[in-house]
Design goal:
Blueprint: E1 8-12, H1 16-26, E2 31-36, E3 48-52, H2 60-71, E4 78-82, H3 85-93, H4 95-98, E5 102-103, H5 109-116, H6 118-127, E6 135-138, E7 155-159, H7 162-168, E8 175-178, H8 181-192, E9 198-202, E10 211-218, E11 224-236, E12 242-248, H9 252-265, E13 269-278, E14 283-290, H10 298-302, H11 307-315, E15 331-333, H12 335-347, H13 353-359, E16 364-366, H14 376-381, H15 390-398
Parallel strand pairs: 1-2, 1-4, 2-3, 4-5, 15-16
Antiparallel strand pairs: 6-9, 7-8, 7-9, 10-11, 10-13, 11-12, 12-15, 13-14
Helix pairs in contact: 1-11
Length: about 400
């Protein structure tokens, strides 16, 4: 099938992760349908035809029926992209049905379940010979007694499975640090009472800039078509959050470890793995694997490595030449998260205002704004009284006066 005969794709998830994928495809002239169960920032992109659907997990039967009603009559299968765990899980569980409507490159459902489960993910990576922080599974309060008394605090608690954690505990906070066994018992008691099992990990020592991410796309035929590496500059929430500012870097060691991990577990398709450099022993240790598009994916497109477009061509069985290089030193910035993080870093005495401003210099892209697709920035600034200020905000960005 030739590309010119089918210039259409479907992106499930309209958060800023989806916005990056939509822009990467739309800028290549591909018509994009964007689907979510709520309106989010990507809803307002010029490159998308947005649609609301039932919740893919809470209303799974209705979601499948909605798919049939809206995509059965297209007459062809559309390449599909996942930018949300909710949609990823729903598609994987129903892939036999949904493969009648869509083209996608996913690992087997059994492997996906192992990756989504943070403890089995840990065991997978350990078998592949990857360095990791010490990790324990806690399903009930009595499991704490099985943990060695000589562990290195502080430690970090996070959900064994991300969807139940987000539903029952918190939608945006990944987990909670604990400084000793007393605080561990207090935190775990509240969480497991909601039937949410957790894992406990020793915290890897080092600043937030010790966090790195390996991103890759492995084709349907098993060929690595693209590899991208980035470094976190700041996180939100600080120390245990997502990248508020990240920068493209070239780190051969990270690429080697990322390849070893993904080949070792048999991973294919799009995905990323986050590592942190441990100041104690000088080794990169795995934080987590993400089997879908990562939040700052548009940074790679801005650096000359368009993952969604490669993914799209591969799904159509087009001959695709891999991309071996990308531009280094480009930053991806979420201004709102970053300013909040700056205030917290400053409160801790580890970042001054002048250091913060200096760190934002140089070439960068924003999570909400591009020259050719400016409207989503209005969603971020708000549609109420803030709307009046938005044109000035955009004008300053266009003229390089906002970092």
């Amino acid at each position: 099938m030739k590309v010119q005969l089918l210039m259409e794709a479907v992106v499930f998830g309209l958060f800023e992760t989806g916005l990056g994928v939509i822009r990467s495809l739309g800028q290549k002239g591909i018509k994009v349908i964007g689907v979510d169960f709520k309106k989010d920032i990507a809803w307002y992109s010029r490159y998308v035809k947005p649609m609301l659907c039932p919740h893919p997990l809470k209303q799974e039967k209705e979601f499948i029926e909605w798919i049939d009603m809206n995509f059965k009559g297209l007459g062809h299968k559309c390449p599909v992209f996942f930018t949300s765990d909710d949609f990823l899980v729903a598609f994987s569980r129903n892939r036999a049905i949904l493969s009648d409507y869509f083209l996608f490159n996913l690992v087997s459902h059994s492997l996906l379940e192992q990756i989504i489960n943070k403890y089995s993910q840990y065991e997978l990576a350990k078998e592949a010979g990857i360095d990791l922080p010490a990790t324990w599974l806690i399903r009930n309060i009595s499991d704490i007694e099985k943990i060695p008394q000589n562990i290195n605090f502080p430690c970090f608690i996070k959900g064994q499975e991300v969807n139940s954690w987000r539903t029952e505990i918190h939608g945006s906070i990944k987990g909670f640090p604990v400084k000793d066994f007393q605080e561990l018992r207090e935190k775990v008691s509240n969480i497991v009472s909601k039937n949410v099992p957790v894992i406990l990990q020793e915290v890897i020592e080092g600043p937030d800039t010790n966090h790195f991410k390996y991103c890759s796309y492995t084709s349907l035929s098993g060929e690595i078509l693209a590899e991208f590496t980035l470094q976190k500059i700041r996180q939100n929430p600080v120390h245990f959050g997502v990248g508020a500012v990240v920068e493209s870097i070239h780190k051969p060691e990270l690429i080697q470890i990322g390849r070893k991990l993904f080949s070792g577990i048999g991973f294919t398709g799009i995905g990323s793995a986050e590592f942190k450099y441990d100041n104690r022993d000088g080794r990169l240790k795995l934080i987590e694997i993400n089997p879908r598009y990562w939040q700052q994916n548009y940074l790679s497109t801005a650096c000359g490595m368009n993952f969604p477009y490669l993914n799209y061509l591969d799904l159509l069985h087009e001959s695709v030449a891999g991309i071996k290089d990308f531009k280094k030193g480009v930053k991806w910035v979420n201004s709102y998260m970053d300013f909040d993080s700056f205030l917290k870093y400053r409160r801790e005495g580890i970042l001054t205002f002048s250091e913060w401003r200096k760190s934002l210099k140089g070439e960068k892209v924003y999570h909400d704004f591009t020259w050719d697709d400016p409207v989503p920035v209005f969603y971020e600034t708000g549609f109420g009284w803030k709307l009046v200020k938005a044109p000035l905000f955009i004008y300053k960005r266009l003229h390089g006066r906002v970092s």
